DNA sequence: AAAAAATGTGACCATACGGTAACAAATATA
DNA sequence: TATATTTGTTACCGTATGGTCACATTTTTT
């Protein structure tokens, strides 16, 4: 039998990503990852230091929201802010891994996940630079972004929210438009 | 030993509520409920038909958002709508059971939870009568309510969202105000 | 009082979880 | 080539899960 630690680590890491994407936070576990990787679970402890170390590796390597950083640098004017919103909501709905981390934060916060959430939130904070002032636009903007996250996560197991079809592209476009329109209205005050 | 089916059923049901409140959806299980009730788990199957039946009982008995129905009946004018929002957000942040059901909907949707979510969502739909039109106010309102739910759920394990303090009463008042202000602005269009 | 029905318990099953230790095999070093 | 060292597997442990079955005890009915 051929032995290759680097390749084995890669198999483990990729399996972790796969399970988080496919099964969500509840599916992530030592046994499941080892089985998916086709490898003994002992090696997860030896090479990564168990689940905690594995999540730390993920956190450090994870380039969350990288696609938004370029826009972020120049989102001082209204047009760029609107572009940022459009790209941000698109990124959120396409990046399943990001969705599952966000879902995870609603479930637990223990010794294993601590580092992951810390790195992730730091990255979010860097990307979504929030207005310092506690004005209504700031709060409204936060609520809408939060709502976007909520409905995105909800859409995994629910087809509708009350009468709103969460599977329809038009719905998400309506949400986008509503955010943009609200920003405009507040800016004209 | 005294035998009293009605009392036993009550013990089981109350234990279920207690665990859902204290441990969240992940803590809800046959063994945990039986242990908390100090009763053999066989009885959960015999009296309720297992977890599925237990959740069905909960769904049918559950008077979700009952405090909002009175306001709902007359929220045609702006003042009542604003009052409805204020009472609704308050109800949401105070009712842990409601929070955990909402959290649950983000985690799974299987044969056991199906009926619970169905009843719960029907009640939500009755309370939050959403505007039929796909206008921006409707979408903006939905996003903000969704955001409110999201931050409420997030606050269980996270003290902040980026720089916003989720433990501060002022934060939630800011959110309330932002919703009210947005509604006003859209109404004046 | 005797028989039947309802109520409740404990034991057991298969499965899965995280975690560890003993051992085999391959690779690197001497 | 002989010896360490690294890599990997298997087996096992304690605990927990959902679910069922046989049995004992209490309550109801005849």
TrEMBL record, chains A, B:
Question: Which keywords does UniProt give here?
Answer: DNA-binding
Is DNA-binding one of the keywords UniProt gives this record?
A: yes
What organism is listed for this UniProt entry? Answer: Flavobacterium urumqiense
Has UniProt tagged this entry with the keyword DNA-binding?
Answer: yes
Any one GO MF annotation of this record: DNA binding
Q: Which Pfam families match?
A: TetR_N
Mind telling me which InterPro entries this protein's record contains?
Answer: Homeodomain-like_sf (IPR009057), HTH-type_Tx_Regulator (IPR050624), HTH_TetR (IPR001647)
Membrane-crossing ranges are none
Segment forming the signal sequence? none
The protein depicted here goes by the name Transcriptional regulator, TetR family
Residue ranges of the annotated DNA-binding region, renumbered to this chain: 29-48
* Occurrences of domain HTH tetR-type (ranges): 6-66
